[in-house]
Design the sequence.
């Protein structure tokens, strides 16, 4: 999937996760175009910078349960090609799990007391 996205500058230390005041607005909706030209809308839940790069957690709006408003989010890596930011799948399972753990911790802090 590809899409230009707005991102903040990374923190001074690439090992740091963005602080809450540096996070992307959780109301942000992006439209991504896949390799076959299909467009899909996603809500940007969170973004983090690590020593391994920048990652975003996206909630596909088309897959939301209409009754509960719940759905599963996906995690993509932000890559820069030709001076444009694009989103790419994470092929490394260990890296994906490590990033997913960071997002899960952040979501638990944000939604403390709510079932995730």
Sequence:
């Amino acid at each position: 999937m590809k899409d230009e996205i707005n991102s903040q500058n990374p923190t001074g230390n690439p090992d740091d996760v963005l602080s809450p005041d540096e996070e992307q607005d959780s109301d942000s909706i992006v439209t991504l175009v896949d390799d076959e030209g299909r467009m899909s809308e996603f809500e940007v839940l969170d973004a983090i910078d690590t020593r391994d790069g920048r990652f975003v957690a996206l909630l596909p709006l088309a897959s939301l349960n209409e009754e509960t408003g719940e759905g599963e989010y996906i995690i993509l890596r932000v890559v820069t090609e030709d001076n444009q930011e694009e989103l790419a799948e994470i092929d490394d399972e260990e890296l994906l799990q490590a990033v997913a753990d960071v997002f899960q911790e952040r979501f638990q802090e944000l939604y403390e007391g709510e079932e995730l």
Observations:
- The longest helix spans residues 93-110.
- Strands lie at 29-33, 39-50, 53-60, 74-81, 84-88.
